[in-house]
Amino acid sequence: MVRAALQDGVLGRAVESGLIDLQVHDLRAFTTDRHKVVDDTPFGGGPGMVLKPEPLFRAVDTLRETRGEPDLVLLPSPQGRRFTQQVAGEYSRKAHLVFLCGRYEGVDERVSTALVTEEVSIGDYVLSGGELPALVIVDAVARLVPGVVGDAESVVRDSFTRGLLDHPHYTRPASFRGLDVPGVLLSGHHGEIERWRRQQALRRTFERRPDLLEDAALTDEERQWLARWKAGENNGAQAS
Ligand code: 4HQ
After folding, report:
1. 157 C-alpha to center of ligand 1: Å?
2. What is the 192 CA–ligand 1 centroid distance (Å)?
3. Where are the beta strands (DSSP E) in the chain?
């Protein structure tokens, strides 16, 4: 599943063109017993299995020898640091990341203590494995490596790079089932289009994710729009 996900699209092309190198390793290859067992029952009892420390330590030791010291050894975990666009930027400036993942109820705590440099969470929900979080993080991080996304402009303009939600997008036809594209987008006035998009992005952030506005860098005009919308809200009126 992990290899398949890394073969397609933006990530697949980035690997093909040598911009990034992604290696997937089977933990069972780092076991020493005949049945290649990577998990065991929890000390103290309870449900589920716990990932054993030895295969993980042996795997990372091998990577240290073959690929050099990793900058980060990451463990996807709901207890981890929340993964955001800012963290993606941080990781994208590292040369060598290792993700430890598997399907298990838990991982032996000595892995967290002595092997992992950072536990990282992609959100407050419970998944059955760390593979999907690792893929989510690899995708978001790889996009920030120069050259991986063909049009660098699109990364810069991406939702969240400015700390705001994205503006609406439209393509042809200009009228579809009675739903019309906003006239300003057909006007050819690039300055007005840019302004409308900033206003829409801000409006959507104000309505859907006001928490993001606390850290957003806003222009004076954008602050004025916000103040107007807030006043309109108080009056119970429809703001423009
Ligand atoms: N996990 N963000 C891996 C998560 C998770 C998350 C639960 C981590 C299951 C095996 N990881 N174990 N949310 O739900 O990163």
Report:
1. 30
2. 44
3. 39-40, 50-51, 72-82, 97-99, 106-107, 118-121, 175-176, 179-180
Residue 44, phi-psi category: left (phi > 0), alpha (psi -120 to 50), beta (remainder)? left
pLDDT one-digit tens code per residue, 127-184: 999 999 999 999 999 999 999 998 988 888 776 778 999 999 999 999 999 999 999 9
Q: Catalytic positions, please?
A: 78, 105, 143, 158
C-alpha distance across the termini of the chain, in Å? 47
Closest-lying ligand 1 atom to the alpha carbon of residue 122: 2
Nearest by Cα to 137 from 105, 98, 183: 98
Quote the Cα angle for 96-130-133, to 5°: 70
Which residues have C-beta atoms less than 6 Å from ligand 1? 76-78, 104, 121-123, 125-127, 129-130, 133
Task: Dump pLDDT digits (tens) for 49-86.
Answer: 999 999 999 999 999 999 999 999 999 999 999 999 99
pLDDT digits (tens, 9 = 90+) for 201-226: 999 999 999 999 999 999 999 999 99
> By the 8 A CB rule, do 68 and 45 touch?
no
Pocket test of ligand 1: the residue of 56, 126, 136, 137 to mutate, having most ligand atoms within 8 Å of its CB, is 126
Task: Locate the ligand 1 atom nearest the alpha carbon of residue 120 and give its number.
Answer: 15
- For residue 107, report the distance from its CA to the centre of ligand 1, in Å: 11
